[in-house]
């Protein structure tokens, strides 16, 4: 019985805090809204980036979502958490904006980058002149091996690239769970998917990302 009471109080505490925050927001408390934005805006931009083509567009979508939150506060019925409701507004707007952006993508955006006049791929002074009978085409100064920080940064970039290459549903789930740190219940509520479906999407996403990262490690070891 004591354990059940402890669990109930643990669940009740966040709900009480949310009710207090909601009351402050509905009363027009600017500081409460500023705190809400500070706590959630960076994540909202990250989530919006899952659906739109650029960070600048994601920023615009997040701003639009905050307007939607303010306009909808009085109609919020508490069927989900305030956070889930807010992010549902965001994802709905991001999906709509993403579809619109794809339909209006100019042909110039699909062109290959102009490589003319880009200059040499490697600076000429990095090698001895080819005419040098002894050192021709050798390094003037051998490159330093990458340090641990460089290797870690490259690994991180490969992980992000692997996530970016996933199918949309898998990319969204793994980003929310493993990058943003959401729990499974929150992800299910936001995306309106079953717990089983969320587990399958996450498993497939993690397996693909792990496989891509293992391939990167094999490349680094000359495998």
Written description of the protein model:
The protein has 223 residues and is mostly helical. It has two domains: 13-103, Rna Polymerase Sigma Factor, Chain: A (Orthogonal Bundle); 146-223, Orthogonal Bundle (Arc Repressor Mutant, subunit A), CATH 1.10.10. It has helices at 2-26, 30-48, 55-72, 82-103, 148-164, 168-179, 184-191, 195-220. Helix 2 packs across helix 3 (55-72) and helix 4 crosses helix 7 (184-191). The termini are far apart.
Keywords:
Rna Polymerase Sigma Factor, Chain: A, 2 domains, Arc Repressor Mutant, subunit A, single chain, mainly alpha, 223 residues
At a glance:
Helices cover 66% and strands 0% of the residues.
Whole-number count of domains = 2
CATH superfamily of the largest domain: RNA polymerase sigma factor, region 2, helix turn helix motif
Q: How helical, in percent, are the residues?
A: 55-70%
Largest sheet: none
* Strand residue content: under 5%
Secondary structure layout:
Blueprint: H1 2-26, H2 30-48, H3 55-72, H4 82-103, H5 148-164, H6 168-179, H7 184-191, H8 195-220
């Amino acid at each position: 019985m004591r354990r059940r009471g402890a669990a109930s109080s643990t669940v009740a505490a966040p709900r009480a805090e949310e009710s207090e925050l909601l009351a402050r927001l509905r009363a027009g408390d600017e500081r409460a809204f500023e705190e809400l934005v500070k706590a959630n805006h960076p994540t909202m931009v990250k989530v919006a980036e899952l659906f739109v083509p650029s960070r600048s567009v994601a920023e615009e979508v997040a701003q639009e979502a905050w307007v939607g939150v303010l306009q909808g506060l009085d109609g919020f019925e508490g069927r989900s958490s305030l956070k889930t409701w807010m992010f549902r507004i965001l994802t709905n707007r991001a999906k709509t904006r993403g579809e619109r952006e794809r339909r209006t993508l100019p042909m110039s955006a699909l062109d290959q980058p102009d490589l003319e006049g880009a200059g040499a791929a490697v600076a000429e002074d990095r090698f001895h002149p080819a005419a040098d009978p002894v050192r021709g085409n050798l390094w003037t100064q051998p490159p330093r091996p990458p340090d641990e920080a460089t290797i870690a940064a490259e690994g991180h970039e490969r992980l992000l690239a692997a996530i970016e290459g996933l199918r949309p549903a898998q990319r969204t789930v793994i980003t929310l769970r493993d990058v943003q740190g959401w729990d499974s219940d929150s992800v299910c509520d936001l995306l309106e998917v079953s717990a089983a479906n969320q587990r399958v999407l996450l498993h497939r996403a993690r397996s693909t990302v792990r496989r891509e990262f293992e391939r990167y490690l094999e490349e680094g070891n000359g495998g």
